[in-house]
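Input record, target 12 of the design panel.
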């Protein structure tokens, strides 16, 4: 992915690539079945990871090759913790684990109160976060309420370096997250027009959790 395919603006990285554009279109299509949706969402997570991990620190190591020679190499410098926000964030985990099999996985449970649109926190199970790079996952950055609450929760548990990864975002959600936690880098594949009165991103792709789990 060349630099010109990644646009950076105030801590927001818009990850753009022909494959990402095509797969995102397939996810937006209401005719895409849950089976297809699941596969494509995980593929997109894997494609995004390439950019998300671009600035990961590595440590120098020496290895011995089959030719009995020493070669200078690299290992990941800090532990990586992947934290999906339940439930839709689960849809991004496997695509990332494929490339980061050594990562630990925490979970944060939030659901949206459909009347108030406010996040209700109901679950947190997290490994050691201090000293780790934490990838916080939610496919949709909509109102920003869940992500703001999830980042606060991670900080309370000792997280120092958090990267927020979403598939789709919109300006209100980005603004909300940046107002509350300006230092958190945001990675997204598209910034959509806005939010409807039910807090859904439009044109969006609908309810990511429902489409992933087939609970429509
Ligand atoms: N959550 C979703 O799944 N979709 C939206 O558009 C907004 C929040």
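The sequence produced for target 12 reads:
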């Amino acid at each position: 992915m060349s630099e010109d395919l990644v646009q950076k603006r105030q801590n927001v990285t818009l990850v753009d690539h022909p494959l990402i554009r095509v797969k995102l279109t397939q996810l937006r299509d209401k005719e895409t079945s849950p089976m297809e949706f699941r596969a494509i969402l995980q593929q997109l997570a894997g494609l995004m990871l390439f950019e998300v991990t671009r600035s990961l620190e590595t440590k120098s190591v020496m290895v011995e090759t089959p030719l009995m020679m020493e070669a200078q190499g690299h290992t990941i410098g800090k532990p990586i913790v992947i934290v999906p926000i339940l439930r839709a964030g689960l849809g991004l985990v496997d695509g990332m684990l494929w490339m980061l099999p050594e990562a630990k996985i925490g979970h944060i449970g939030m659901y949206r109160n459909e009347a108030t649109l406010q996040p209700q926190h109901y679950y947190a199970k997290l490994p050691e976060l201090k000293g780790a790079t934490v990838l916080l996952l939610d496919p949709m950055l909509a109102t920003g309420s869940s992500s703001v609450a999830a980042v606060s929760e991670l900080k309370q548990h000792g997280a120092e370096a958090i990267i927020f990864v979403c598939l789709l975002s919109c300006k209100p959600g980005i603004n909300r997250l940046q107002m509350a936690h300006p230092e958190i880098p945001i990675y997204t594949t598209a910034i959509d027009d806005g939010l409807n009165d039910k807090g859904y991103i439009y044109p969006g792709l609908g309810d990511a959790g429902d489409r992933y789990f087939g609970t429509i």
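Residues 88, 140, 142, 200-201, 204, 207-209 surround uracil (CB under 6 Å).
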